[in-house]
Amino acid sequence: MARRALKLASLAAAASGIYLYGNKFLDPNDFGVVRVGRAISTTAVITYDYLTSLRSVPYGSEEYDFLKSQVHLRSAERLRELCCANRGTFIKVGQHLGALDYLLPEEYTRTLKVLHSQAPQSTRQEIEQVIREDLGKEIKELFVSFEDTPLGAASLAQVHKAVLQDGRTVAVKIQHPKVQAQSSKDILLMEVLLLVVKQIFPDFEFMWLVEEAKKNLPLELDFLNEGRNAEKVAHMLKNFDFLKVPRIYWELSTRRVLLMEFMEGGQVNDRAYMERNGIDVNEISRNLGKLYSEMIFVNGFVHCDPHPGNVLVKKCPASGKAHIILLDHGLYQVLSEPFRMDYCRLWQALIKADMKRVQKYSRRLGAGDLYPLFACMLTARSWESVNRGIDRSPVSASEDVEIRSNAAAYLPQITQLLNNIPRQMLLLLKTNDLLRGTESALHTRASASSFLNMSRCCIRAISTYQRSKSHSLYRRAQISLTEALSLWQINLYELFLWLKGSQLGNWVIALLSRMHHST
């Protein structure tokens, strides 16, 4: 009887499997038991690998470091395969980890970076279903043309180029239909698995990752929120004529569908594209730094996903000016005033190599005794460079290797630090690393102009804050005068640097030298 029941169950399972795989509307990956089973088995294999591979090797030996690197790589590849299979929230979290270049071992960041280009695509039928449910019409009723192949596909959505009935060319962002239902279950699953791993490896402190996903995913899944963010940042930074933010068409936008002005250009890290189109690489890097310094230090409203696919550049044929196009406004970090002021003062101290203030403001931001590590994480520079002054010399190849090696060597301390600092800091660290990746691709890292722009924004932000807290007209005037003098000093120093690097400056120096020798 038992054998007969087992045979019937096997036949039923086989028939179910054939039906699921043969039915184009059903994907086994969408079933909870499959997703949970895959996540549990991957976590178990990675945990077992770490427990057994390093057990019999002396800690700190060359063999230990080599084996650890191999375990990191195997684990990162397994994690990448899990993200690609489970899709949605898993890919989003994997992309977040892949962006932490100077905070996680290189084996992880290098392996997980590919998730930006391996996001799943929804089928035409799924796209039609979402548009029909949200806008109440078929695609052919809304658009004269609609390109089947997406311009880009991400973890939560994909974007198509289309032409409206009135002739306007638009970008249509459409959410993957199953993401909304799966996201909360996926986050719960990740939380449980991370808690289990922490019981085995007490130094493993990655709960901050789940907390961030819990907070940010609902916001990113609401495209109306993204539209509001786009309009807010466009208004906030309207004085930057080089910045372009696509206009939102609210009449055809919902929580899962976002229609916006179509804009195109080359990715911000594509140096070859800029050279072909006569775009000044240094100007783009400088302007990108201005944008983010303004967002972080002055406004406290920060676009936190500046990976190259979300930041485009294009030369305007009419004016000849290069524009920066900022896309994907789903993820913003709002910085509280106390946090923003401490962060401003910390960066001022880092730029001036004022170690007492670096320690003071790092501690105020939750770094505790790990403030040297925190300073290195923020600047992506060695402790020696931080002490000497991060604006004194560019990043050398050997220093870059040292920083990446330290990310692996100090992983327990880094995860402890990430667990202790304010949640506002986490997305800023990710943003910093993404911007540094762009600067590295353009060969403009640690340029003096970027630090000067940061200094200007810090001075303006602190002065504005101090004036808002002062009730004395004399004190406010005093603050404004100090601000003006500080900004004037920066302008003077920038002029000096320009003269020093220009042909005119070389002539002036040569002339002064000859005059000195003649006297």
Automatic annotation (TrEMBL):
Domain Protein kinase: 145-474
One Gene Ontology term of the molecular function aspect: protein kinase activity
Any one annotated GO CC term: mitochondrial inner membrane
CDD domains in the cross-refs: ADCK1-like
InterPro entries per the UniProt record, alphabetical: ABC1_dom (IPR004147), ADCK1_dom (IPR045307), Kinase-like_dom_sf (IPR011009), Mito_struct-func_regulator (IPR051130), Prot_kinase_dom (IPR000719)
GO terms for biological process, alphabetical: lipid homeostasis; mitochondrion organization
UniProt entry tagged with the keyword NAD: no
Entry keyword set: Kinase, Transferase
Keyword field contains Iron-sulfur: no
Family, as annotated: Belongs to the protein kinase superfamily. ADCK protein kinase family.
Function: Appears to be essential for maintaining mitochondrial cristae formation and mitochondrial function by acting via YME1L1 in a kinase-independent manner to regulate essential mitochondrial structural proteins OPA1 and IMMT. The action of this enzyme is not yet clear. It is not known if it has protein kinase activity and what type of substrate it would phosphorylate (Ser, Thr or Tyr).
Identification of the protein by name: AarF domain-containing protein kinase 1
Organism: Opisthocomus hoazin
